[in-house]
Fold:
Amino acid sequence: MPHPHVVLERSAAGYLRLLLARPDRRNALDPGMVRAVMDALRADPAALVVLGSTDPRSFCAGADLAISDAQRSEVSDLLYECYEVMITRPGPVIAVIGGPAVGGGAQLATAADLRIGGRAARLRWAGPPGRDLSVGAWLLPDLVGRGAAMELTLTGRWVDAAEALRLGLLHRVADDPGQVAADLAETLLARSAGSLASVKAVTSAGDLLDRLHAERDANRAAWTRGPIQPDPG
Structure:
C-alpha cells in the first residue's frame, strides 16, 4: 500500500527508486514505513532497486523514538523480515547513503547489495540504551570480518565515510552518490537478470541467514523482557 513517507518511482532507465521521505524525523521508521518498503521490494522481486532518501542529508535514524515501545518492537521485527527480503530477492539493491544511518537504518543500508556513500555518510550499529539488543552482529562479519564486526557492534561507535570505504562497508564515496548509484544501476541493467540473480543466490547461502534469524530471535526476547533497570549499587 502507498505510504506518505515512502516514495516509489521508476526511472527512465527502468530501475526502481525507493526513497524514504520523512526528512523532519531523519527518516525514522514506524511500522507502516517498514511495511511499505517491504511491499515495494516484494512487488517486483526481479527489479533493480536504488534505495535512498528524498533528503540527501540523512539516510535513516532507525526506529522512531517517539512511538511506543510496542511499536518499536514491531519495527525491529519487521526490519529483520525486510533485510531477508533484500538479501534473497533476485534483483539487486543499491543503497545511497548521503548522511547518518543509525541502528536499524545502518542495517538497512548494509543489507543492500551495493552501497554508495556521500562525503557526509556515517554509520552506527547501536540500539536504544537499556534494551540489550544486538544490532548488526548478523551482517557485519561478512562485510568486514569477525574482528572488526565485534569492535563495531560492541562499541556502537560512528564510522565515517572514509573509514567505511576502507572497511568495505561502502563501495564508493562520491560528491554525488545518487548519480553514481544511477550510473551503476544502468551498468547492472545491461547484464542478464539471470546472472545477477545467480550471484545473489550464491552469496546469500550459508551462515548469513542463520545469523539473521538468530539476531531476530534474540531481539524479540530482549523486547519481551522490557528495559534493563540500572544497578542501584
Observations:
- DSSP finds nine helices and nine strands in the chain.
- Strands lie at 6-10, 16-20, 49-53, 93-97, 100-102, 114-118, 122-124, 159-160, 172-174.
